[in-house]
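To whoever is on call:

I kicked off a structure prediction for a single chain this morning and the downstream step that reads the tokens threw a length-mismatch warning. I double-checked the sequence; it's 182 residues and nothing unusual in it as far as I can see. Pasting both halves so you can look.
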Amino acid sequence: MYEIIGMGKRIEVKKEKHKLEIIIKAFYDAGKQKMLFAWIILFSFCGIAIVTQFFQDYEANYKIIFGVYLAFWLFFEFKVIYAYRWRRLGEEKISIENNQIVLSKTIGKRGVTQQFNLDQIKKIDFLKNDGSSFLNAMNSSYWNINKYHLAIYLEKTIIPFAIDINNKEAKNILNELRKLKK
């Protein structure tokens, strides 16, 4: 039998005697999601326009410029489509069971899972953010999926998790994780 503790609309905690599972659904804002979709459509047209010009009869210097533009275009197209999909279907799952912590980040049915033994972990704490205010503003924008709040500190590695949560939610999650880690 497990106990479900709600921490808000997006966070669900399931507790059993020696097992903990925390599910964090991606932050979703319908208005921003519509704007992001419009941006994807318009930006895709820009890329298609450049692709059509790439195969025309231009000098090599212009083709280099088109190629560089297309490289940046592909990068940002990928990032924004990923953000759009994450906001609609994404979730993080943090599980502790059998002396292991498992972090899963999924979009729909696809995802990435990381597993660590609890004795490898030095601490689980707030993620230290030493970036500039410009970088903080860029990382906290709706189209960017980098606003991690918590981290697992290993010997030489930091594993961030808990995207787009507030301080109160982060404290609650941290308390639950620390209780079971002991």
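Update from on-call: the warning came from a stale cache, not from the record. Cleared it. Sanity check on the structure: Strands lie at 3-6, 11-15, 20-25, 90-97, 100-107, 110-117, 123-126, 148-153, 158-163.
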